[in-house]
Amino acid sequence: MERRVSMGDVAAAAGVSAQTVSRVVNDSPRVDPATRARVEDAMALLGYQINRTARALRTGRFHTIGVVVATLATVGNSRMLEAVAASAARRGLALTVVTLTGREGVADAFARLQEQGVDGAVVLNEATAIAGDAAPPPGLRVVAVDSPRPAATDAVTFATVQSDHAGGAAAATRHLRERGHATVHHLAGPETSFAAAERERGWRETLAAAGADAPAPERGDWSAASGHAAGMRLAADPRVTAVFAANDQMALGLIRALSDAGRAVGDDVHVVGYDDVADAAEFRPPLTTVRQDFDALGEAAVTALVAAIDGTPATHTVVPTSLVLRASA
Length: 329
Fold this sequence. Notes:
This protein is of the alpha/beta class. It has 3 domains: 7-50, lambda repressor-like DNA-binding domains (434 Repressor (Amino-terminal Domain), Orthogonal Bundle), CATH 1.10.260.40; 64-163 and 294-319, Rossmann fold, CATH 3.40.50.2300; 165-291, Rossmann fold. It has helices at residues 7-14, 18-25, 33-46, 52-59, 75-90, 106-115, 127-131, 165-178, 194-209, 224-235, 248-260, 294-309, and strands at residues 64-69, 94-99, 120-123, 141-145, 159-163, 185-188, 218-219, 242-245, 270-275, 288-291, 316-319, 322-324. The strands form 2 sheets. A 6-stranded parallel β-sheet has the order 2-1-3-4-5-11, sandwiched between helices. The protein has a 6-stranded mixed β-sheet with strand order 7-6-8-9-10-12, with helices on both faces. Strand 1, helix 5 (75-90) and strand 2 form a beta-alpha-beta unit. Helix 1 (7-14) packs across helix 3 and helix 5 packs across helix 12 (294-309).
């Protein structure tokens, strides 16, 4: 029978002591980065497998984090999950994903994660609205993505991470105003979404600062189909010459509706989206949009969660956005 690779084997291959290998296995901070890298390379070369159960018994840490998500049907959620998974993998953390079926499932989701042995959880995007009133069980650290920051007086505090949604919306609205439009219409996201509310706030405040009226927004559910439905109403109004859509999917449906109505996007009507999805440059015309840095958001969320697990006070992180100019506006 083939002998299992031991810490001693790894130590010999890396040219360090077995105690140093043990410190690397247990994520001790008392190992310099170069030595840690050499030990990890030796582990990979020899096929050394960490006994996670034994390590958890020794350290009280499972080196696994959970992700709570309402749906993976939206681009934002799926991109965020991908980014969180990549950041966790770079730290050697395993990932457990739980999807919600409604508000009543939040407590069960937290309980399931704790039963499966996680050190903390990242709550993604729309799930934060559902989970807002559900306190995680004692000992489970939580980071919420796209959630209002808890008030200092709240009994339950958790770290939060978000894009600069309002700032991105303001940049989009200013750009459309600078193109000569008297006002900018808005295709908003769901009323329950924090991100949608922040983008709407940025749009409203920018128009107010310019002394321009804010037309009543159309509202969608993030899908292209809802953007098309709202777009047909907007296309029928000749006063609509500039539209800021709260995400790229809805902008895609909006562009189709405007085109079907014979209104040329990028000429008769200018459109700006939000997210900068991978296909935004392939829209017809290519879509001007606000870019969210999902990789940076995922990294910030995992960094905040690891810090919370280590006992650092809850933090609030805002990741910058940027306007990407293309032919639609």
